[in-house]
């Protein structure tokens, strides 16, 4: 099934293999009217409703035993407004197709996450983000939304029209309605120069503020059981284009980052004791490189090795301390972690339940190879993250509930009040939303 979720014998599974559900019925509407009619029919039959994207969330945020809406027919660009610098796109469009279509039109998003398999609506509803000093999340680039609400009405919102809905629905967790179209701010396509280079963990920590301040997009990967990181800086460039040489690209991105890494993880799963030695080797496998290309070819890369992930947003000022605590915990524990820890940043934004809402943010993502026991590592990591008022990514593994969120999100009550107004009967309910938003 490529890189998306799969459906067989009526069972829907997510990409990470952490969720499996059997919906009562499935529809793939070809228009907004068909989608609205399906929602009204589900209401008459008393069925809950969820839309799914490509299943890239590790949580059960999209799971339902009611009506499952698949958006694969709601794809493509609806409108390009060059004067306003916006593009309106159907909600089921995969980010990959959006990026390629925009590039063809000489346009680009300002920033994006590191994979592009997800649908537009799935990516924004869970708060997908990249890294950036001035921009990071996909949702913060939204200028307008169209959604079908619980009563089957079509609602449009922007900072001018229904601004209270706009404030929340840009990262709406699927709780406020089903997004049918998204209007993004876009700009003329530009070039980015990427500099990737290894750097000692202690140096990255010591110079983190400077690395963040001096680069438009800075991120790094720390390899547990080592003092090594791999850093990546992306900055706008006047050119010329100097893409990665196809052979070098294949060696680094396919052979090492996916192929050898997959084998290393198989070995680690079979013999956990070997993991620290493997980590020392793999943390040195990728050497420094620099290349210049259009944004989506720099920001995103293929991820073929399956994993399970937890990611927390902590205040940016608390990053180094949090990371040092994580390293100390791994160093003194019997844990064997074969996946690097990914660190990114985002500026504060004004979206109600954005992980960067109201505060400059750093993200720490921990991963485990699919099929290895991850609970011990994730539980210990989560204890550290929550001590720093961390906010978990809505689409990644976590154990937090509404009580916790009401403490770490100052505007949490604003979101739940809007949900009460837009979906009083909880048409878009499921177990995950009951846990994170309350009944």
Brief synopsis:
With 439 residues, this protein is α+β, with helices and mostly antiparallel strands. Helix content is 33%, strand content 24%. The radius of gyration is 21 Å and the shape is globular.
Walkthrough of the structure:
The chain is of the alpha+beta class. 33% of the residues lie in helices and 24% in strands. It has helices at residues 32-44, 95-104, 120-125, 163-169, 201-214, 246-270, 275-285, 295-299, 319-332, 375-387, 402-408, 412-422, 431-437; strands at 6-8, 11-13, 20-21, 25-27, 49-51, 67-69, 77-81, 86-90, 107-108, 142-148, 154-157, 178-185, 187-188, 191-200, 217-222, 228-237, 289-293, 307-315, 341-346, 361-369, 391-392. The chain has an 8-stranded antiparallel sheet with strand order 17-14-16-15-19-20-18-21, sandwiched between helices. The longest helix has 25 residues, at 246-270. The model has no long low-confidence stretch (mean pLDDT 92).
What's the SSE blueprint?
Blueprint: E1 6-8, E2 11-13, E3 20-21, E4 25-27, H1 32-44, E5 49-51, E6 67-69, E7 77-81, E8 86-90, H2 95-104, E9 107-108, H3 120-125, E10 142-148, E11 154-157, H4 163-169, E12 178-185, E13 187-188, E14 191-200, H5 201-214, E15 217-222, E16 228-237, H6 246-270, H7 275-285, E17 289-293, H8 295-299, E18 307-315, H9 319-332, E19 341-346, E20 361-369, H10 375-387, E21 391-392, H11 402-408, H12 412-422, H13 431-437
Parallel strand pairs: 4-6, 5-6
Antiparallel strand pairs: 1-2, 2-3, 7-8, 8-12, 9-13, 10-11, 10-12, 14-16, 14-17, 15-16, 15-19, 18-20, 18-21, 19-20
Helix pairs in contact: 6-7, 9-10
